[in-house]
Amino acid sequence: MRFFKSKEYSVDKIQKSHLDPNPINELRKWLRKASRSKIKDYNAMNLSTASSDKGVSSRIVLLKEVNDKGLVFFTNYNSRKAHDIENNNQVYVTFFWPELEKQIRIHGVASKLDNTENDAYFKTRNYKSQIASTISAQSEMIKSRDVLVQNFKDVLYKNEALERPESWGGYLIEPISFEFWQGRKHRLNDRLEYYRDENEWKIRRLAP
Ligand SMILES: Cc1cc2nc3c(=O)[nH]c(=O)nc-3n(C[C@H](O)[C@H](O)[C@H](O)COP(=O)(O)O)c2cc1C
C-alpha cells in the first residue's frame, strides 16, 4: 500500500508575537479551539514512554485536566506504561487534530498523583467505568473476553459501592518543553518551541 497524494495545509498560521508567554495557557487556548471546532476526542493524546529493556512504546490516553503544573491522565499503575514511567519518568505526549492541521508535542516528567486526588477522581467516574477499572488488570494476559465480561457482570450484579483499587490512579506530567505545529502551504509549516532558560519560558521557531 502506498500513499502518494499529498495535500496542502492552509487553514491557519502561528505568529510568535501572538503566543502566550506561558505555554500552559497557549495549550489551554488550543484545546478550547479544538473543543469549539467539535473535534472528536480532541483530549486524546498519544503518550510515549521508554523502558530500558523493552524500548519505546506509545498509546492513546485521555487528558483529564490541565492545571498550572501540567497535564493529568488516569490509568492502571501496573500497566506497561506505568512500569516504563517507574524506570524512566520522562514522557512525550502528542495531540494531532487533522481538521485544524495542528499538532502539539510536549516533553515532560511524569509523577503519580496522591491518594486523595485519585480517590476524588475515581468517585466522579460512572459506576460501569469504576467496575471496569476494578476488574481489569491492564496490560496483563487474560484467558478470554468471556472471563472479563463475566467478572464485570458479577460486580455489577452485587451493585455495591466500589473503593478505588490501589492499582488505579493518575499521573501529572510537568512539562519541560512544548512544540506547537501548524501545517502551512508548500510544507513551510510553523513550528514554535517553548523551552526553559533558567526559570523562564523562551520561544524559538524551528525549521519545518
Ligand atoms: C481514545 C482512547 C482513549 C484511551 N484512554 C485511556 C486512558 O485515559 N487511560 C488508559 O489507561 N488507557 C486509555 N486507552 C487505552 C490505551 O491506549 C492502552 O491500550 C492501555 O492504556 C494499555 O497501555 P499499556 O499496556 O501500554 O500500558 C485509550 C485508548 C483510546 C483509543
Walk me through this protein's architecture.
The protein has 208 residues and is an alpha+beta fold. The chain has one domain (16-124, 167-205): Electron Transport, Fmn-binding Protein, Chain A (Pnp Oxidase, Chain A, Roll). Helix content is 26%, strand content 35%. It has helices spanning 23-36, 80-87, 115-124, 127-135, 145-158; strands spanning 44-51, 55-62, 65-66, 71-76, 90-97, 102-112, 168-182, 190-197, 200-205. Helix 4 packs across helix 5 (145-158). The longest helix is centred in the first third of the chain and has 14 residues, at 23-36. The protein starts with 22 loop residues before the first helix and ends with a strand. The model has no long low-confidence stretch (mean pLDDT 96). Flavin mononucleotide (FMN) binds next to strand 2, strand 4 and helix 2.
Report the CATH topology name: Pnp Oxidase, Chain A
SSE class: alpha+beta
Small-molecule binders = flavin mononucleotide
CATH superfamily name?
Electron Transport, Fmn-binding Protein, Chain A
Give the ordered list of helices and strands: HEEEEHEEHHHEEE
Biggest sheet descriptor: 9 strands, antiparallel
Cα-based radius of gyration, to the nearest Å: 20 Å
Could you list the spans in which at least 5 consecutive residues all have pLDDT below 50?
Answer: none
Fold topology:
Layout: H1 23-36, E1 44-51, E2 55-62, E3 65-66, E4 71-76, H2 80-87, E5 90-97, E6 102-112, H3 115-124, H4 127-135, H5 145-158, E7 168-182, E8 190-197, E9 200-205
Helix pairs in contact: 4-5
Bound molecules: flavin mononucleotide (FMN).
